[in-house]
Specification:
heterodimer, A: about 250 residues, alpha+beta, six-stranded antiparallel β-sheet, two-stranded parallel ribbon, 6 helices, 8 strands, globular, B: about 210 residues, mainly alpha
Chain lengths: ~250, ~210
């Protein structure tokens, strides 16, 4: 006699039941954990922004964020203003840090003026700092970061992260020795025009003594990820250049 | 081992040596090449695979009498995919830091052929307890090779182990680097993992002639 489980009808019923059971288990798991996950992502954004402001718990070599339970307090303490720039108009918005840079970027492909640009202003040791989020493409997937600057667009702090760059190569953009290289680098040239910062191979400055050459030392074996960092700094920070210009004129 | 019968302990110990899933069965090569540039990633991947393989083996083993043979592969795939998604979601909710370190690796577990291989070859024909031990054993055998490969690749490629600069500082020229030693950037690329793996297979087979096929 044919085995019960070999029948077509049994197979079809089994498949339907399996899909229903697994589907509802996954849906239940996803919806019950959703709140916690988005809360984690919100905290991470604040941690990233604080990191670019220079508020972190770094030890000698590794990058450490402000602890998750202290983030909310530190964030409201240091970030004094959250601005949104859209087509030259600056408005205040205390939810600006929740703006999805990826979405803004893809929505404004045809029309740059549609893009909402978040900008975080803070006061650190009496100095006004500006932090902006940037977003781009590495070798395998998305890369993004937060860059802290003073009013002359000289970098004061930088944080980079990635979705799936190669461990040991491109993934090292989130290592201290790469991120710290950006500190003190100028985004503008001597005449005050925006040029960005190039992640350059062979700029023969491994300890990064020259801060005004608009270049930092690249990571070996991570050329495309490095080029991605160059490109995202150039394209995204450029959009803020008019704002910093207007700061000076006032 | 007093806790396990002789047969049961064989289930755990065999895959570590003479029936290793990577070096003998040549399964799970893809992830062994992709993620072993750093020791930490290797360890994390080994532990994740162990969790998924042990639980998955038990689930498949419990279901073994009701799974229709025509769609058994799909069923196995659904089980492992569901497990991986749940693990991923739980990590994101309760251990966000860890989930970021794991990032793509969790998703990669689904494509690990050792998992499908053990479901198909073992769990479908054996009880839950035996399947559980088999899952632990095979994942440990897989993890062992991953850690060995990861150890050499990180040490020779970056001069670090788990991120610690064990050979000195290449930029400040201290430690070994003061003597003119250079990191071998090749070690960070996947092809070198294959070569390290080849050397492990060579050593293993030259020590145990019984493993050499005609």
């Amino acid at each position: 006699m044919e085995n019960r489980t070999d029948k077509n009808s049994y197979t079809i019923i089994f498949a339907i039941v399996m899909v229903l059971v697994v589907g509802s288990v996954l849906a239940y798991a996803a919806s019950s954990l959703k709140g916690k996950i988005s809360e984690n992502q919100r905290i991470e954004k604040q941690q990233n922004i604080l990191y670019a402001f220079g508020i972190n718990e770094n030890d000698e070599t590794s990058a450490n964020f402000v602890a998750a339970d202290k983030v909310a307090g530190e964030f409201s303490k240091y970030v004094t203003k959250q601005l949104v720039i859209q087509d030259g108009n600056v408005t205040e918005d205390d939810q600006a840090y929740l703006i999805d840079v990826k979405k803004e970027k893809s929505n404004s492909k045809s029309d740059e003026s549609k893009r909402r640009l978040p900008l975080f202003v803070g006061e650190i040791d009496g100095k006004t700092m500006y932090v902006v989020p940037i977003y781009g493409k590495g070798l395998w997937d998305a890369i993004w970061g937060y860059v802290g600057m003073d009013e002359n667009m000289v970098i004061q702090g930088a944080y980079f992260d990635h979705k799936g760059e190669t461990p040991g190569l491109g993934a090292n953009i989130k290592e201290r020795y790469f991120m710290d290289d950006f500190i003190g680098e100028h985004l503008l040239d001597e005449s005050g025009e925006f040029v960005g910062i190039t992640v350059a191979k062979g700029n023969a400055d491994p300890t990064n003594q020259r801060k005004t050459d608009n270049a930092v030392d690249a990571l070996a074996g991570a050329t495309i990820t490095g080029d991605g960092v160059t490109a995202m700094i150039r394209s995204d920070l450029k959009l803020y250049a008019p704002y910093f210009k207007s700061l000076k004129n006032n | 081992m007093g806790l396990l019968s002789k047969k049961d302990s064989k289930l755990i110990l065999d895959p570590l040596t003479d029936n290793n899933p990577i070096t003998i069965q040549v399964l799970g090569i893809c992830s062994a090449l992709a993620i072993t540039a750093q020791l930490k990633a290797s360890i994390v991947m080994a532990l994740s695979v162990m969790a998924v393989l042990a639980v998955g083996n038990v689930v498949i083993s419990l279901m073994r009498n009701i799974i229709p043979s025509k769609i058994r592969i799909i069923t196995q795939l659904v089980v492992v995919a569901a497990l991986v998604i749940i693990v991923d979601q739980i990590l994101k909710a309760f251990s966000y830091e860890l989930s970021k370190t794991l990032s793509v690796f969790v998703g990669l577990i689904i494509t690990n052929c050792i998992i499908m291989g053990r479901f198909e070859a073992f769990a479908l024909a054996n009880g839950p307890w035996k399947s559980f031990l088999d899952g632990i054993g095979n994942a440990a055998g897989y993890g062992l090779i991953l850690v060995i490969v990861g150890f050499f690749r990180e040490l020779l490629g970056s001069g670090t182990l788990l991120g610690f600069k064990v050979l000195g500082d290449p930029i400040e020229k201290t430690g070994l680097y003061a003597l003119g030693y250079e990191n071998n950037g090749f070690m960070l690329l996947s092809p070198m993992a294959l070569i390290v793996l080849g050397i492990i297979i060579w050593i293993q087979r030259s020590r145990n002639k019984a493993l050499i096929e005609d």
